[in-house]
Amino acid sequence: MIHTKCLALVTICFCFYQGAAGTEGENDWHYQAKESHPCQRPCVPGDVKTCYYRFSIEWYWALSKACYDCPQTLSDCYREDCVPADGVQRSIMVVNRQMPGPSVEVCYGDKVEVEVENLMNDQTTSIHWHGHHQVKTPYMDGVPFITQCPISPYSVFRYTMGATNLGTHFWHAHTGVQKSDGVFGPLIVRAPMDAETSLLYDEDLSEHTIVINDWTHVTGMDKLQWHIQSSGNNKPDTILVNGRGRYFNDTVQLTNTPLAIFTVQKGLRYRFRLINSGVHNCPVDINIDGHTITAIASDGHDFEPVEVDSLVSYAGERW
């Protein structure tokens, strides 16, 4: 299992199989993502696509009616549109009723088009593509009043950019503190696997993307005001992994929502992509029981592989 450490302990479960792995089930990342995208494919030289996505941003609710009897009935936690988070109800802000939101996974050279619809009646919004340099598309960077006008309630804006920055990135809201309420998701640009990368790992699978974020039991704005104008702190209540976690009060477990589970086959080497979508003052220490980690890239840049016992990750970093 993986341990992440800030103020809370989060456990990620690994399922080890002797035979072939990859059967999709209710615990898989693909299942949470509702459906795969045609651009989520093995990258082949010369195969360039236009990749279209539709994001609908709205206010929502953790453990909403869509969750039925979750977590008392664990199977209900995997129902469509159910966002269990850490088992504590609160208002949240989501894209397509998912947290994390849809994974944008494309190949180098693809054209990416993301149509963002603002379904909130009380806030404007925008999306920033964290790690993408936007060299030829500066007005797609998603910074309100700097590179674009914010997206008004019940309006739509289309982001168009080329996939020109290889590596592990992510997208997130860049208006107010909306990112802290759930508006974030992976952005991954892959290249065709060559002889050099095949020496490092055997598999680079979508379901092995790990998105961590610090989570509070009030909205991001309430947390911010409590910290600035009263006696509150800026520490999270829980660390979520792919939108899932359990709430502990000191050492006492108070909720029993499902955890993220990753399936691997014994004897194979897997590339895991780690995205830290945190917002608070909370560096996260990550280690895997009984294993070392071979780090090969950071923030979209490859480096000489180095074997480590753990990684310390800060908000916005990718590994």
TrEMBL record:
GO molecular function, one term: copper ion binding
Native source species: Homalodisca liturata
Biological processes per GO annotation: iron ion transport
Family that this chain belongs to: Belongs to the multicopper oxidase family.
Classification of source organism: Eukaryota, Metazoa, Ecdysozoa, Arthropoda, Hexapoda
Keywords: Copper, Metal-binding, Oxidoreductase, Signal
Full protein name: Plastocyanin-like domain-containing protein
Alphabetized Pfam families for the sequence: Cu-oxidase, Cu-oxidase_3
Signal peptide positions (record): 1-22
